[in-house]
Amino acid sequence: MKIRVLTLFPRMFDCLNESIIGRAIKNGILDFAAIDIREYSKDKHQKCDDTPYGGGAGMVMTAQPIYDCINAVDPNHEYLRVYMAPQGETLSDGLCRDLARSGDLLILCGHYEGVDRRVLDLCIDKEISIGDYVLSGGELAAMVVTDGVARFIDGVLGSSASHEDESFSDGLLEYPQYTRPPEFMGLKVPEVLLNGNHKEIEKFRRAESERLTALRRPDLLVGKRAATADEMRGGGKNGD
Ligand code: ADE
């Protein structure tokens, strides 16, 4: 899978060269590049922003460099083109899975007070938010999307079981994990995890997942019950 991020601050993405995503990039499983929008500016000082029409604080990113950058990277509109913005669809586990399946991804990062609306209307397929707060730019949000999506690409995680066991994979939060030593600062690892009985361990983990979800994210259980009831009535997305 290819991911191209269009940004005024490409060096911010250097941190993706670490850890799991860094390994996927090195192994060629994820083809990632951050592209500097400024290089496409036709302004003699490579300016990429201007004051907003109608007045107001801050600067707005101009359409021309973004338009030319998008068309240089994706001349035949083969990528899904995403703009990171608080008004977009909120990122979720399901959306990450869908994006990982939907082919190559071009992610545009806005900065300052945003981007001239016309270039978004002309070029962008989808807007995505990472939550109800405003960041100073789309870069950190684009990194979140890159990481969240890349984990669903085959071969990025060590074993395919890894993300099936995680929070949200079954609509529940993940059970707590422990490793050696069996006792730390007087706190013991639950006995059941030490006895090697896999059925018992599975039961314990499921119960812990349900308990934690009820405690911390009861909204997830409501969504899950509604989905189950819908399935039992023969509903669901495909009507089957
Ligand atoms: N840019 C600024 N704030 C953002 C957010 N919450 N999500 C995505 N992109 C953003």
Protein architecture, described:
By secondary structure, this protein is of the alpha/beta class. The model has no long low-confidence stretch (mean pLDDT 93). Strands 2-1-6-5-7 form a 5-stranded parallel sheet. Helix 2 (63-73) packs parallel to helix 4 (117-123). The chain contains 8 helices and 9 strands. Helix content is 35%, strand content 17%. Strand 5, helix 3 and strand 6 (105-109) form a beta-alpha-beta unit. The site of adenine (ADE) has 11 residues, from strand 5.
Count of helical stretches: 8
* Fraction of residues in β-strands: 15-25%
Quote the distance from N terminus to C terminus. 31 Å
Tell me which ligands are bound.
adenine
Secondary-structure element string: EHEEEHEHEHEHHEEHH
In the sheet with the most strands, the strands line up as 2-1-6-5-7
Low-pLDDT windows of residues: none
Largest sheet: 5 strands, parallel
Helix content: 25-40%
Note the topology.
Blueprint: E1 2-7, H1 19-26, E2 31-36, E3 49-50, E4 60-61, H2 63-73, E5 80-90, H3 93-101, E6 105-109, H4 117-123, E7 126-129, H5 139-150, H6 161-164, E8 183-184, E9 187-188, H7 198-216, H8 218-232
Parallel strand pairs: 1-2, 1-6, 5-6, 5-7
Antiparallel strand pairs: 3-4, 8-9
Helix pairs in contact: 2-4, 3-5, 7-8
This protein binds adenine (ADE).
